[in-house]
């Protein structure tokens, strides 16, 4: 057929093939299934979002309750301003921090570090230490809680280090004695020596 023999007219105006009643019923059935699945996924998304929102609210309420309980333990009251509360917390952490001793230039031997962590018996907090390498932000060790009146002479490193000196941050985490609730943290820099 040559181009001159093509019939004139707009192809869009030509009627589409009509579907048989069986084909139309199958098409409608597929549409209903698809819409049902979409509705179920939408309901599932709404349910999951509701659960997440409820969980976030519950976590916030729990965090607020823990924070308020901790605040009461160190003398913070509702009548205090936010500045006064922060100051009381800083004072409590400062006191707790001043009552611990930690080797400022510990050496490593046989994979153990001479940490010499001492928590003075007059401290009102238990303390745990995280040792973090400053240049890589890698955690080298985490101690268990050391209660007031106790000390930890050596701690095992969680990683193998090459010989050298490493600047580290000793993050001191303080916890209340009666229920081990987290109170806050302080930090000090130290030089770790690996022979």
Please give the largest β-sheet.
Answer: 4 strands, antiparallel
Low-confidence stretches: none
CATH class of the domain at 100-194: Mainly Beta
Q: CATH topology of the domain at 100-194, which one?
A: Immunoglobulin-like
The rough form would be described as elongated
Percent strand: 25-35%
- Helix run count: 2
**Strands of the largest sheet, in order across it?**
6-5-9-10
Give a structural overview.
This protein is α+β, with helices and mostly antiparallel strands. The chain has a domain at 100-194: Immunoglobulin-like (Sandwich), CATH 2.60.40. 36% of the residues lie in helices and 27% in strands. The protein contains 2 helices and 10 strands. The strands form 3 sheets. The protein has a 4-stranded antiparallel beta sheet with strand order 6-5-9-10. The longest helix has 53 residues, at 21-73. The radius of gyration is 34 Å and the shape is elongated. The mean pLDDT is 85.
Features:
single chain; 195 residues; alpha+beta; Immunoglobulin-like; 4-stranded antiparallel β-sheet; 3-stranded antiparallel β-sheet; 10 strands; 27% strand; elongated
